[in-house]
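ok trying again, last paste got cut off:
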Amino acid sequence: MLELKIFQSKGENELFVEQSLQQLTPITSDEAVTTVTLDENQTFQVMDGFGASFTDSSAYLINQVLDNEQRTEVMIKLFHPQDGIGLSVLRNPMGASDYARDIYSYDDMPELEIDTELTHFTISHDEVDIIPLLQKALEINPEIKLMASPWSAPGWMKTSGSMIAGELKREYYQVYADYFVRYIQAFERHGLLTYAVTPQNEPLYEPKHYPSMLMLPESQMVFIKDYLKPSFVKHNMDTKILCYDHNWDRPDYPLTVLEHAKDEVDGVAWHWYGGDASAQSEVLEAFADKEVHFTEGSGGEWIPPFEQAFSNVMRTGIDILRNHSKSFVLWNMALDEKIGPTVPGFGTSTCRGIVTVNQETRELNYTLDYYALAHFSKFIRPNSLRIDSSSSCEIIRSVAFRNTDDSFAVVLFNDSEEAKNVAVKLQGEELLTFRLASKGAISIKINN
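nice, full thing came through this time. structure:
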């Protein structure tokens, strides 16, 4: 006998609400039924999971602004598989990003001074807020995987002499590889294993108002092939190396890197700020043994809340997974009421966090991104296997997985302007029928 567990979102005032089969809106007899068919005989990628980033700003807000009771609540609601939404992938900026209270690396030096032996290397900054929260998250959910991405090398390694803009100097490629090794070793001493790294966040974007570093594909392939991977091998590190870490609109970048450093690269990391998720499949077709990861996508004021913004996360999240990604990671875990803090000189921020922590009132709120992520992370658990799901009408978007306990997880989104009749079938057997609200989402767990 099948057992169903269901969560549904019907709009801003009814988000991720648990419902029984009897509480679902029944189909109407005068309209066609869209059938979503699940086929466990066709399988695709194994999931690592879903998550966001403990940026310096996010970690500060959760660890220092919230009180103990609030901090415990939010960590449980973010990471606990039963009492929360079970987030299981965290991407850590290596040093300052745009969402940090100041600009810092792990080896800052006075102007015109260098430290090629990395004698001044320290992760003391992260030991205040970031590391305690990572340790707490892992305590709550031991299945969490940690990724790491730098926004910039230390300024003294770069042509700009600063963490703002510029490129990595060729004479410091080995030193920078050693910098990655030091980072991984330092975090491991805190019980934190680094699952994967990328050499550079958004390597084709060189903003002048927050840490950044231009790294063209020709440079990245040399850095990975001749320096980073050999350094990992030398130190017996099995941390994965993901190339690119930028938008869908430039698949030529990872294709170039993989052509010349195929054996040294484990996969490709993607962002959603340009292009289409089909780029993930395009590169996978050329390099079928490489992993696909989605490592950053932020909601923000450029997409009006609520409906359009919620729909964007649901629609795009399903596309990301249907295009073979093993992970779906949004951006800041927390931001404040002013959409910050940001680095000095950043200007106006427009991004949205998973939660909002008001620095003046200490009020804690969960944003639409939290509930959208919940539709995926609650039932699609780590190491689940994506199975085929096909819809008789493409306006009902779907993705489905088989978990390691043999349960099935199905996420559906009605991308039309009208409510639709929906039937879900598994191996030809109809499991349930219901009416799905316009721009509504539903997550279904099917236990055998």
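cool. The radius of gyration is 22 Å. The chain has a mean pLDDT of 97.
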